Amino acid sequence: MDGKSTQPLLVIRNLKVEFPTRKGILTAVDGVSLHIDSGEVLGVVGESGAGKSLTGVSTIGLLEPPGRIATGEIYLEGRRIDRLPYEQMRKIRGKEIGAIFQDPLTSLNPLFRIRDQLVETIRTHLDLSESEARNRALELLKEVGIPSAGERIHHYPHQFSGGMRQRVVIALALCASPRLIIADEPTTALDVSIQAQIIELLKRLCRNHGTAVMLITHDMGVIAETADRVAVMYAGRIAEVGAVDDVVLRPHHPYTRGLMGSIPAVGSNVDKLTQIEGAMPRLTEIPPGCSFNPRCPRAFERCRVERPELAPVDKSQVACWLFDGQTQERAGGP
Amino acid sequence: MFGPLFYADGPITMIAFVIRRLIQALIVILAVGFISFSMFTYAGDPVSNMVGQDTTIEERKVISEKLGLNDPFYVQYARYLGRVARGEFGTSFRLGVSVLELFKERLPATLELSAIAALFALLCGVPLGVYTGLHREGWISRLVLTLSLVGISLPTFLIGILLIFVFAVNLGMLPAFGRGGVVNLGFWSTGLLTGSGLRSLILPAVTLGMFQMTLILRLVRSEMLEVLRTDYIKFARARGLSNRAVHFRHALKNTLVPVITITGMQIGGIIAFSIITETVFQWPGMGLLFIQAIQFVDIPVMSAYLMLVALFFVVINLIVDLLYYGVDPRLRFDRPVAMGNG
Amino acid sequence: MGWTHACALTGRLPWGTGDRMPWTGQAADALRRAFHSDIFFSFRRSPTVVMAAVVSVVYIAASMLAPWVAPHQVFDVKTLNLMDALTPPSWHPDGQITYLLGTDDQGRDVLSTILFGSQISLLVGFASTLLAMVIGVGLGLVSGYVGGRVDAVIMRIADIQLSFPAILIALLIDGLARGVFPRKMHDEMALYVLIFSIALARWVQFARTVRSSTMVEKNKEYIKAARVIGRHPVAIMFQHVLPNVMGPVLVIATISLAVAILIEATLSFLGVGVPATQPSLGTLVRVGQNFLLSGEWWMTIFPGLALIVLILSINLLGDWLRDALNPKLR
């Protein structure tokens, strides 16, 4: 796809995650395909409930019942990982794929010191002695920018502020130098002033360690700052995916256009922000055809009937009938 | 009764905390002492309470003087507290012996029984609770839970009677009453060193501990289920920690912390249940003594028992609070220490 | 024991320290979760539960009508035949069909003593629950409506009392009463003292619930309107607030009934409950225990089983009633 001979680090092909409920089977992730190359940051953006978190959680194998992966494949460096038994998947978690979640306060066990939580994780994956592990833990804390690390390593989680805790969480995720980190809304629970710092830290660390990141968020600003490529999700499906500049500056899918239009640019003089009419449908009420069609200003007959698949448009991939044969688009559609 | 926590950081708070609790404990003891004193002095004849009913008129006069029964009420109260502190609880009506002696004789029996019962409750309740928490759906779990429902619904004395019926009467395996052979180690008489003593402990301990066990079981289970749903457990799994580490290092520790306080608070229950259990099994402990005292209207024993129970209560509660304080690090600091801008 | 149901309902431990310590809230939540778990739920909704509730209604009715329903008039000394004493249950080779469950050492038919005993148990249970309800609802109304120091004092007393198990409280009151009343009066007063002491041990649950409901109602429009009109606070409390807070009270009352019966049975078993002339199920178990070791097991086991059936069935009835009264659960 990009000319390199190396295969992508992570490939998700046609992932479907469903939840059997009393009212029937709800499909929360409906045929999502994406890939992440070594060392790159892929942003996965969308509204709450679009299925982004579930995609991340399924990748790391922590999907909780009754949710289940119905179909689809997930490959890590060419090796299939979506159907691995628990114990094998566990060895991959933390060592090859790491994860960071939203709320740093609840992510850390309040009864254990930071030192113990770090050392435990390190020794689970690396064959180090207690003191070697402690040294490494200290190094990690310094790397994520905890001041007086030597002292603070003995503290409990509640003795850290929110931003500091998230740094600790990042340190924990990086303990065994995984190749990929799934970051699920890593800054959402933090103060705005601290968000930038944490994002900066994440970027820097991943560049230094060569770690790829699946950055899941609803914040386009974070994506624009940090990601190399971005996938826009809507109602469990990918609407558009491409390089971050392309998607942000030259959005194709009407939904993406709406999203970009709703972000005010600094210095621009607008009276009103563009809004997308309506709301994302609930899982039980996903319309046939393209799931965005009820809200789409440019929807036509085909949109209501047939579901569009991702197809290349310019340098991105877009799932929209407007681009089926560029000529049709230019002709303005029926 | 137990006031709000402290406000500052550091070791001063610990001391302040302890002092606050000690003061509250003192208030409780004084209040109970008041009831106890009233009972001793105004219910029945305080002179008889003090020296027994078979005393001569002269002796009574002397005691009357000593007790200062015409003194103002608060003076008598203070004197009563002084006597209690010295261990002078009076003389039992029923047995004509000093109450203190009676207590010394009976206390080991009750303490041993309660300790074994508590051990039974913990050793059965915690593992079963953990098991049913980890294996939510299995048939063993369902069976255990249904049985625990039964255990909670049955009154303690019936549990005792049924156990006697099955194990003593029908199967003849275990004794139906009494303590069996005891060995006297100084002032302590123990049943743990003889075969018959140990066998006699089994049924009463199970009876006494049954309710606590089912409580602990259900508590541990639901706490476990709750903890397993938390973010930090999810994150622990995301870091690749083994099931053993996740379940038994993390989840278990977080589960047991609230269980400690609840178990400590059950102390009232253990006292109440021990009265019942000792009656069923004719166990020569404090509980049976108390019941006999009530039936006989043995005022000195009753009022002394009351004071003792209050003291016990207060001490146990204090220990539980300190324990909890030691176990949960969040309580040692009032608010997270902010360090710059994150 | 039923007080665990109660603490599950009110969110408090029976001898907890209220919400003074931060972790007792957590502890109380933990207890509440433990009892409202999945097993309890499925238990409540199955048709067998309803059937069991029906069976229990029959039992309760039968025991209340004991004098007419019982096969033998066991309290009429003239009808007793000492020759029939210690007869085993009817299915035993030595048993007789007229004495279905055997007889006791005085020749009394066990089945009939159970029916009469259940009647006493139920009466004491009802009376003490009613009294607890009156005291608790009254204090709860006052506490919730008046607020301020009165509220603080009442709630403090409630908290302190919750730290002590009901049995201990009842024992204490009984002991005090015996100390205060001369020996001759003990038997006469025993029943009243018993009812009073159980009520005193149980009022807190009612008071707590009513208080919180009252505090909610107090701020509603119709109460404010009544105040503006100038109605007397007592009238407001009873005429307006009370009907609206009775719902949860009835639910607690049913649970409380089972608990009261339990406490009465335990106290009677210990020998400090009902007087010997009016034996309840607890007394029967107590007396029967003396014969357990010599082989006449039916004298204690059957009353014991009857007690279990009674308590369980009232609990089931209470649950059923609660579901029936609560439209939200449908």
Terminal Cα span of chain B: 39 Å
Could you say which structural class the secondary elements and strand pairing of chain A correspond to?
alpha/beta
**Number of beta strands of chain B:** 2
Strand order of the largest sheet of chain A: 6-7-8-3-9-10-12-11
Shape of chain A: globular
Q: Main sheet of chain A, how many strands, which sense, barrel?
A: 8 strands, mixed
Instruction: Bin the helical content of chain A.
Output: 25-40%
Structural key phrases:
heterotrimer, B: 342 residues, mainly alpha, two-stranded antiparallel ribbon, globular, disordered C terminus, C: 330 residues, 13 helices, 0% strand, elongated, disordered N terminus
Brief summary:
The complex is a heterotrimer of chains A (334), B (342) and C (330). Chain A is an alpha/beta fold and 334 residues long.
Characterization of this structure:
The complex is a heterotrimer of chains A (334), B (342) and C (330). Chain A is an alpha/beta fold and 334 residues long. Chain A is 33% helix and 22% strand. Chain A contains 13 helices and twelve strands. In chain A, helix 4 crosses helix 5, helix 5 packs across helix 7 (162-173) and helix 7 (162-173) packs parallel to helix 8 (192-209). The radius of gyration of chain A is 21 Å and the shape is globular. Mean pLDDT of chain A is 84; it is low at 327-334. Chain B has helices spanning 11-42, 46-51, 57-67, 73-86, 99-134, 139-153, 156-170, 195-228, 231-238, 243-265, 267-281, 286-296, 299-327, and strands spanning 183-185, 188-190. In chain B, a hairpin with a 2-residue loop joins strand 1 (183-185) and strand 2 (188-190). Chain B is globular and about 85 Å long. Mean pLDDT of chain B is 79; it is low at 1-9 and 334-342. With 330 residues, chain C is mainly α. Helices cover 72% and strands 0% of the residues of chain C. The relative contact order of chain C is 0.14. Chains in contact: A-B, B-C.
